[in-house]
Structures are given as structure tokens and as C-alpha cells.
Amino acid sequence: MNRFLLLPFLLSSFILSAQNKGYEIKITFKPFKNQYIYLGHYSGKSMPIDDSIRLNDKSEGVFKGTKPLGGGIYIIGFPNKDRYFEVLVDKQQHFTILADTADLDNRKFVNSPDNTLFIEYQQAMRQRGEKINQLRQQLAGTHGADSVKLSKDIAIADSAISAYRRNVVAKNPNTLLATLLHLMEEPKIPPAAEHPGGRYDSAYAYRYFKNHYWDNINFFDERLARTPSVLFEDRIDKYFKTLVYHNADSVNKEIDWMLGYASVSDEMNRFLLVKFINRYLKQQYMWEDAVFVHLFEKYFSQKEYSWLTPEGKKIITERAYNLMANIMGNPAENILLPDSTGTTRNLYEVKSPYTLVAFYDPNCGHCKEVLPKLDSMYRNKWKADSLHIYAVAKEVDASPADWKKFISSNHLEGWTHVFYSKAEETSRINASIPSYSQLYDVQSFPTLYLLDRDKRIIAKKLTWEQINEILDYRKK
Questions:
Q1: 468 exposed, middle or buried (CB, 10 Å; 0-12, 13-18, 19+)?
Q2: Which CATH number fits domain 336-475: 3.40.47.10, 3.30.465.10, 1.10.287.130, 3.40.30.10?
Q3: How does pLDDT run across 332-343, given as a tens digit for each residue?
Q4: Pick from 420, 474, 473: which is nearest to 447 by CA?
Q5: Which pTM does this prediction carry?
């Protein structure tokens, strides 16, 4: 081949290679002139800023970087950051945007098929949505046969939207828009005639919905991490809230499954780990302590991440250590502390079907309200239910004399009373022994634990009313 004939080919290859390096998004954004605008992306419920440029006196500017942007939904922010419009970023990162605030819905893109398709989709959805809204407004003031017809028309319009989305996906299967549309669609449970035995089976419906919930959605696709929370993050929340059994083993299994796929993508791994560790840092159910400990042991204790600050690692580690010793269903740590006579009283020597361990501060205002109520329940009901109270008074500001006065003035009789002094806690810490405060995760007063005959944790950090309900339930 003539070497001169190679020149156009070589130039073409060079241009393609250059386009693959970094990003270059040219924009004309009227009417803004000599003002800064911003390029950011969705990250769940937040929108981090990736770049900013100052438009010239012709409303022109260029977002440019040497490294490619991660795929996902990005935003172009107005100068005052109070408004924005969305842009899709995927493989093609050298394109032009022509936008005017007077008609943002009809913004134009050059050399960006993804965004041209995105605009067409948004316009089609807007038209269909307006039609459905009109039908619903008509339905609100209609009765009889007309309302039946309008309801049918709305159902047909809804079906048309689903069909339109499926058609877009079929024609553009590998695009970012197709992935976003998969996120919007939930499984359709087959009609009763297609169920086992030809009838509706609720168990089958549940299994089908759960098994197909993540169809066409890949946890290694980092573009999912750069979408609004309503698309991906809320979908995860719904999955764990409505489809996963509410126990630690089931939740841990699902988390490991998701992170197993996400591990090939640093961004998705980060996104899911941050989501899960924040979600289970503040437990909504008692059993979620085991989920947090599982996350720590498998994903944080022996691993380092560039995105995790030392302060963040410290918070996670300390919280995990506080929970490890008091996971639901596990034996509680033994307590050996002196009573008012100086005699050491051993928690495990309490022989009772139920033991209520109560950490409190004699000078705590809330404790002064709660502990007499505990005593009332103990005298009138719990003692007959074979429950014994092991009360641990922690020295904060109260002296041993204050503690003894608190017991006598409130007539807290029949309990096992022990005093946890500052000196005892300091001694344990200096000897590298976890304090009782850490072992029982005492972060506020009073902190209540309900133990069974073998001192396994039945419930923790509940109100006295909730403990009473648990005792009633267990009696049944």
C-alpha cells in the first residue's frame, strides 16, 4: 500500500485515540455570559461537583479533563447552583451541548447519540405523561360508565408507556438509557393461568418477583452508582425492606452476593460499602448488630480503601468492637462488680429464667423516672414471671453514697445492686480489657438488656414497656 494512502487512516486512528483520552464537553449555555457553570454527577442522594468553567461573552465554554469521566447521569449546574439539567455520560465523552434556559427541554447535542436518544425519550414521556394526567383529572370528576372508560384509557396509556420503554431498550440494548429503563421496570408477575396448578399462588408470586427483581441489572456496572437515589439506591432499599427476610443471616447473604459482583468495580464497591455501612451503623432492628459486625469483619477489618479516611475507619472499628460482645442471641459478657457491702456479685451466678441487666447513673434525670417504674413492674408482675434485676450503677458524677441513697430512697429491694466505679473502668482499660461500657455498648442511660436462663441476649436497648411485651410473648 502506498504510504501516502496510509496517511488518512493514520490521522483517523490518531483522532479516535485522542478522543478516548479524557473528556471534552463543549457547551453553549445561553443567556449566561462571563459566569461559572458546573459539571457534577448523581451519587445516590448527593451531587458531587466534578468540574467548573467560566463561560465567555458568547456563552461558550469547555469542560475538559485528561481522565475519562465515569459513566452515569451528570448535571450541568446554573451559575447560582439553584437549577440544573441532566446529561448522560458514557463511552463517548467528546461532544457538544447547545442549551438555552428559554427552552431547556429542546437542548441539542452534537456527536452524542446517547444524549440525543435521551432527549427524544424525555420528550416522548412528557407527552404521554401529560395525556395520562389529563385523563386522571377527568376521572376525578366522573362517575358511572364514563369513569370505567376513563380508567380503561388510563390503563391503556400506562401499558403504552411500558411498551415504548421496551421498544427503546430492544433497539438500543447496550446504551446507558437502556440500563436506566431497566431500573425503572419491576418484574411483572405472570397471570394466574400461568402459575402452578393454574391458580394464583402467593408464595410463587413472591419468589418470582424476588428472583427477577434484578433482571438486566448488573452490580459491576459502575454507571448505576452515578444515578439519582430514586433509581438505584431506593430500589436497593425496597429489596431489603420488602423481599429479604428480616434476619442477619439473610441480609448478610444478600450483601455478600451484591458485593461479590461489585468487587470488580472500585466505584460500585465503594458505593455499596458506604451505603451498607451507613445503613447498619444505626440499627433499626436489634438483630442488625450482626450485620454491621459482618460488614466490618469481612470488608473493613483487614482492608484499606483510598476513599475511607482514618477518622471514618476509626468510627467503624470502634462501633464494631462495641457490638461484637453483645450480638443478639449470643451469651452476654459476665459482670463481676461489688455490691454495697463490697462483696463481688457475679452476673452468671444469678439463677433465674430471665435477667434484666440495667446500666444507669444515679444522678441521671431519666434514670430517676425509669428505675422506679422498673421496680413497680418487678414487684407487681416480673418477679412472678421469674425475672431478676441485676442493676449496674455507673459512676459518672455520683459517689457510692449517692448510689446507696438512690437505692434506699426508691426502695429498690430484691434486686442485685453493683457499683461500677471510674477506677474500675480505668483499671480495665489500662489492662487492655474491654470496659463493661464497651461490652454492653452503653451510650446512654438507662441501657437495658434482657437475658435468658443461659444469659443469652434476648433483647437490648429497649424501653421497659417493650421488655414487658417480650416477656408476655415468650410466656405464650
A1: middle
A2: 3.40.30.10
A3: 999 999 999 999
A4: 420
A5: 0.83
